[in-house]
Amino acid sequence: MDMPQTESVHHSPASVCLVLFFKAPATAKRRLAVQLGDASSDAAAHLLCCALEDLRAWPGDRVLAAAEKQDAQWLESELGDDLNVVLQRGRSLGERISHVDEALRRNGMQRALYIGSDCPQMDDRYLHAAAAALERDDAVLGPAGDGGVVVMGSRRPWPALGKLPWSSDRLAEALRALLVQQCWSVATLAQRHDVDTLDDLLRAADALTGDSRPARQALRRWVLERAPCATPSAS
Question: Among candidates 185, 210, 195, 198, which has minimal Cα distance to 47?
Answer without folding.
Answer: 195
